Amino acid sequence: MVTFDSDTQLFTLLPQNQEPGEVIALPGIECTDDVNNLWAFRYTNSGNIYSLDYRTPAGNWITPVQPPGNTENDIWAFKAYGNGKALLIDGNSNVLQFNGTSWQNLGIWREGGFSYDVDIDANGNIWVTGVGGAAKRDVQTGVWQRYRISNTSQFTYWVEDITMDNNGNVYMAGNAGTGVGGFQKFDGTKWTGYNEFTYGLGNPFPFPTDNAEVLYYRPSNNQIIVNPMFNNLHAWTGSSYTSLNYPNSRSEGVVEDSQNRLWSVGEYYNLSYYNDALNNWTNVPFIGLGSNIEKDPTRPGTVWVCSGYQVLRTDGTYNFSKVTDDFSELDPQSDYLNTVIPLENGFAWVGTNQGLAKVNANNGTYQFYSPSNSLIPGDNISPLALTRDGRVWFANFQSTTTSTYGLCWFDGTNFGIIPQQQTGSLPHAQIYDIEVKNLQNGYELWISCASRGVAVLTVDNLPVNTVNLTTFIEGFYNPSPNSQISDTINVYLRNAASPYLLKDSASVIMQTNGISNMSFNGIQPGQYYIIVKHRNSIETWSRSGGENFTTGSTLNYNMSDQITKAYGNNMRQVDTAPVRFALYSGDVNQDGVVDISDLGFTDNDAFNFATGYLKTDVNGDNVIDVTDLGLIDNNAMSFISLQRP
Fold first, then answer.
1. Are the CB atoms for 39 and 33 separated by under 8 Å?
2. Which residues contact 637 (CB under 8 A, 6 or more apart)?
3. Does residue 107 contact residue 100 with C-beta atoms inside 8 Å?
């Protein structure tokens, strides 16, 4: 034991001769009570080796009644309080209280060891923490109440399904670990558990499984439909579970149609709807492994359902179907469908591994959006939600034609993306489910983000902000006609204050005169940086401090007329009459630096006489040759790199 004198700033080693009265250890962290009595272990000359004593501010040692069976190594948590009072937890999680005269056993707060802290509140309730959460002992009843993630919070990062009731409560299902299982309800403030370990603060989950796969709020009767993994479908009525007599152990999705019929799509070649009165299911022919099922917003009693092979619109008798063979853009031997999101009047968005299709069930036609014919950010598309501003929200996870994964949207004209960014943005681009909660001035997207839990994106229905941007690309600009080769750029808006959170993005065609017109939705008034990214140019930020956006305004930003319009003056002058500055070319691998690695990629393509729309085509003539190498080499010699706040 060592003492420290704050007046002299000296440490002193106390005697260690194993003689009676020597202090050998402290029982815990909080060893000083409210009147500055100091509790400590001391050697004794009696039958016990140690004694739990306390020293008064006057320096006198008092040996109170010892805790039952106590030794130095048996105290896991200790709290001195009041005047000569104490709490401790032993290795068996017994909580003991000393009232100044005697010790009282308050019981085991939970089975097992590893208790870490104990305290008492102003009302006399005892609080403890350790492995397995926390607990409170009510001073009036003497009852211990356990608190764990299973009854106080979202208990799993792997949220597999989300649903919302008509009161705005959010229910989440997923794999919460061995023995936990069930699902959780969040009312905006409090979490309620439906599992084995609610300790009286939740509801039961009487199924032999570790997770729930499907959750669905049924509007017609306010029940929650749940599929405990491998345990069929059940309805939670608010007080008990009722079996729906579902013949399959697993469901891949549940929905209620406009005629209040409950539908379920199963794993393999299984689609059926439920008869509440007869408690049975009617099968509807369906091909493939089910992926999702949605209510048709227009046609009575009709749903849309998707598998890897077929998208089907049906009411059980009427059927409209398209399979992979019906899409000329797909190879039926290797390509597949992902998910479907219905629109009104017989239209629907269907995702595939080659792009996004807008299907017309009225005449069987479709429009197909792929990276070869549009600005869609990816080819492996999974539509997940439709919002009242006309956007379809989709994921592009595992796409091969994009370097940016994220939450994407399409409003029928413009594509946008919120990239995956674990800090301050989308935490994971692999999205299992999206549910929409409408607000007075917008909506929220509740997003299940694979191993990263749930993210909530708020979208405000503010007037659209328009940006008219003028910018040029060094290698694409020709001073003789004072124009450039047209190409795609991605433009991002970020907050002007650290950590510069991404607010919106747009993919646009940069015209030969340098002008690009784009729209951003839901932008609050304030300062924002405009960031321009091109496939083989240095990412360039607007000038320091950002630009001022007002609600519903149009911002004209000419980045090309002054070098100071770019952050850090990070542009090259490409013309003198008119004066024009352009983004540096040559960042072929988009790592923020023009260097030897970019030269290597380009030299390899030049050696192989490569042609076409390639990143190594730095001057935009669709031929990779010495001209491209010269541009890259010049900027590499100048140590050109990304400049940002």
1. yes
2. none
3. no
Residues 6+ apart with CB under 8 A from 517: 466, 467, 468, 469, 508
Average pLDDT score over residue span 590-615: 93
Extract the tokens encoding 317. 């008798």
Phi and psi angles of residue 64, each rounded to the nearest 5 degrees, phi first: -80, 180
Paired sense of beta strands 2-5 and 10-13, if any = antiparallel
Quote the pLDDT of residue 49: 82
Structure-token pair, residue 297:
């917003």
Instruction: Round to whole Å and give the CA distance between 330 and 429.
Output: 24
Cα separation, 201 vs 472, in Å, equals 62
The pLDDT value given to residue 72:
65
Name the β-bridge partners of 534.
Answer: 489
Q: Cα-flanking dihedrals φ and ψ of residue 567, to 5°? A: -60, 130
Q: Which tokens sit at 237?
A: 């009525």
Round to whole Å and give the CA distance between 20 and 159: 59
3-state secondary structure of 72: helix
User: H/E element holding 602?
Assistant: helix 596-607
The pairing of strands 347-352 and 337-342 is: antiparallel
Q: Strands of 355-360's sheet, edge to edge?
A: 337-342, 347-352, 355-360, 366-369
Nearest C-alpha neighbor of 516 from the set 550, 547, 492? 492
Q: Which residue has the tokens 């059927």?
A: 319
Site of tokens 């690009």: 516
359 touches 311 (CB < 8 A): yes
CA gap 304, 255 in Å, rounded: 10
Task: Give the E-state strand segments of 175-279 in sequence order.
Answer: 183-186, 191-194, 212-218, 223-228, 234-236, 241-243, 253-256, 262-265, 271-275
Q: How far is CA 623 from CA 94, 574, 611, 636, in A?
A: 78, 21, 5, 21
AA identity, residue 537:
S
State residue 425's pLDDT score. 84
Residue 44 to residue 20: CA distance in whole angstroms = 4
DSSP 142-175: --EEEE-HHHHS---S-EEEEEE-TT--EEEEEB
What per-residue string of b and e applies to 59-97 under the rule 16 or more CB within 10 Å gives b?
Answer: eeeeebebbeebeeeebbbbbbbeebbbbbbbeebbbbb
Cα torsion angle, 512, 514, 517, 522, sign:
positive
Identify the helix (H) or strand (E) that includes residue 629.
helix 626-637
pTM over 0.90: no
Please tell me the predicted confidence (pLDDT) of residue 521: 72
Q: Is the pLDDT of residue 522 over 70?
A: no
Cα–Cα distance for residue pair 155/147, rounded to 1 Å: 12
Contacts of 189 (CB under 8 A, 6+ apart): none
Mark out the alpha helices in 276-413 (DSSP H runs).
none
Q: What was the pLDDT predicted at 71?
A: 63
What's the burial of 200, exposed, middle or buried (CB within 10 Å: 0-12/13-18/19+)?
exposed
Q: Which amino acid is at 477?
A: Y
Contact 173, 181 (CB under 8 A): no
Alpha-carbon span 229 to 209, nearest angstrom: 6
- Statement: residue 461 has pLDDT above 90: no
Structure tokens at 542: 């607007």
Q: What is the dihedral of CA 531, 532, 537, 538, to 10 degrees?
A: -10
Residue 552: how many CB atoms within 10 A of its CB?
Answer: 12
Give me the sheet containing 75-81, strands edge to edge.
75-81, 85-90, 94-98, 103-108
Phi-psi region of 569 (alpha: psi -120 to 50; beta: other; left: phi over 0): left
Residue 74's pLDDT is: 86
Helices and strands in the chain, H and E counts: 3, 53
Q: Do residues 254 and 263 lie in contact, with contact meaning Cβ atoms separated by under 8 Å?
A: yes
